[in-house]
Amino acid sequence: MRLLYFAWLRSKIGLAEESVEPPAGVTDVAGLVEWLRGRGPGYADALANLAVVKVAVNQEYVPFDHPVGPGDEVALFPPVTGG
Amino acid sequence: MAVRVQEADFDMGAELAALSAGNRRVGALASFVGLVRDMHVDGDGQPVSAMTLEHYPGMTERQLEAIEAEARARWPLEDCLVIHRYGRLEPGDRIVLVACASPHRDAAFEACRFLMDWLKTKAPFWKLEETPEGRRWVEARDSDTAAAERWQG
Questions:
Q1: Which ipTM did the prediction report?
Q2: Which of A79, B27, B36, B53 could cross-link B140 (Cys pair, CB 3.0–4.6 Å)?
Q3: What keywords does the record list, in alphabetical order (chain B) (predicted)?
Q4: Which chain B residue has the Cα nearest residue A53?
Q5: Tens of pLDDT along A13-66?
Q6: Is A34 a member of any domain?
Q7: Could you tell me the residue range of the domain that residue A6 belongs to?
């Protein structure tokens, strides 16, 4: 699974992207976020308030109960501020 | 129909001229250009010396294409164009151009506004401002969400 982080999530986590193999129990975005929080203080800080975290799976916005699997591209980022 | 995400500036006049060139059904051409301001509008009014726009290559283009397709489904547009820049920009620099060509002005005006309102809440761009107190990420505004929601349903 390929993970991408943008804006302040990238700064806090300290990575723009990474490949991960979460445990089999991780089946949706919420489970993935919970697993990521345990990977270090940067992750825990970045993912502390999910009200300001948006998720895209394979470049489409999804809710936190959306399933995730090994081949997916999952992006975590703050609410967008373009235009 | 075109969506472009680019670091380079664009020529407003040339882009608008090209959008209606050779199409005599176009009676109205509306456009919006967003520029970098020299201060933050919310709260403290801190001066902004520059900003860097980050985006999600791939998803950005997909989202802009989806937004443009939605505009074309809602209004009788002959053509439309979205150009959005990324990278480091300074006050006065152009950020975004949205333009819609239609037989009539109502469709062109409304589609232009719709494209901007949806783009601001859906296209994956983020602004990092440079101020005298350091760099800070611009926060999403509730008023932008409200503007986008007016077009739902």
A1: 0.95
A2: A79
A3: Molybdenum cofactor biosynthesis, Transferase
A4: B140
A5: 999 999 999 999 999 999 999 999 999 999 999 999 999 999 999 999 999 999
A6: yes
A7: 2-77
